[in-house]
Automatic annotation (TrEMBL):
It holds the Pfam family 7tm_1. PROSITE patterns: G_PROTEIN_RECEP_F1_1, G_PROTEIN_RECEP_F1_2. It comes from Periophthalmus magnuspinnatus. Belongs to the G-protein coupled receptor 1 family. The chain crosses the membrane at residues 57-86, 98-123, 135-156, 176-196, 225-252, 273-291, 311-334. It comes from the Eukaryota. Keywords: G-protein coupled receptor, Membrane, Receptor, Transducer, Transmembrane, Transmembrane helix. This is Neuropeptide Y receptor type 2. Residues 77-331 form the G-protein coupled receptors family 1 profile domain. It is found in: Membrane. One of its GO terms (cellular component) is membrane. InterPro entries: GPCR_Rhodpsn, GPCR_Rhodpsn_7TM, NPY2_rcpt, NPY_rcpt.
Amino acid sequence: RIYTWPCTAPTRIKMSPPDLSNSTGEGETFDFDDLMLQNGSVGLLPPGFYTDITKHLWVQITLITAYSLIILLGLLGNALVIYMIVRYKNMRTVTNFFIANLALADLLVDTFCLPFTLVYTLLDEWKFGALLCHTVPFAQALSVHVSILTLTVIALERYRCIVFHLGRRLTWHSSFIIMALTWTMSAVLAAPLAIFREYRHEEILSINLRISVCSEMWPHGTSSIIYSLSMLLLQYIIPLAIISYAYICIWVKLKNHISPSTRNDSINRRRKTTKMLALVVVVFATCWLPFHAFQLASDLDLVLRFKEYKLIYTVFHIVAMCSTFTNPLLYGWMNKNYRNGFLMVFRCEDKPDSFHPEGSFRTRSTRRQTLNGRNGGHPPTAV
């Protein structure tokens, strides 16, 4: 399940042997005195307890650096993608609208989730009040649902057009309706993470300390496991199965396609675009697989006794969050339109007249001369 660690860190750590005297709403045992001992807040640690490695200075510096880089790269890259699509008219295609939707979802994580995640991971205390306790985990779950649903829609749209040779693609109006539906459906799927959550203050009498805790509070002990399994299916396994099938069919169709030489450029562009979008899906799946697996193992109580549970969880969360900035890098690497547009932004150059279909900027006069020479004065049909 998405976003469990930052908002339930104190309540998901078990000691060995466990203390059954205290129990959370998730059916998990917990003792706040033990928590403070393991984090080194009390002088000497008794036998059976261990220090939290994330409290070491070098680990905290590494975590701060990693999260800061993800936030900065995500903000810069995704903002550039949206800027490109909004500013340049020829970039306003249905596929690019969906790509902008992906970028918007990633921006939501970079601005609204990761800073809070970093602070809570380092402090082991929720400093941001009850409202953000409910909304931050909801926002990240919402973002991931939007991302995977959008990737699925992109794959199915290309499958419909390429495999079945449907010349009529989605209109702008239809694409915006689909995007609105993805956000609505994602909000419904992410809602339990906002509803079944509790913000409370806990007293640690042994050291006279009062801390704020933001934790999941499910109505039944098995609810957390059921939700995790459901999300693993709905947000990972089923969408990736659909996407994989669609792109395999598209790849086979384009590979075996025989067309006149005048359409070779069109086929090559479709192959390049399909390869780029498929790689986006592969990176997304790779980044999130360790986190999904570890989250499920946590809910099944298979890894909570690991000595370095918190550090492992945090590392997997960082790997998953890398998906928020990899997409713009892939666009710039594999698509000339995006690459040239990014370069123009960094060079502060003027807006070009348009984008060449294969991705290179050309002035209107140069493009007209080229087209006249190649096509007898008739421009090629855009695909």
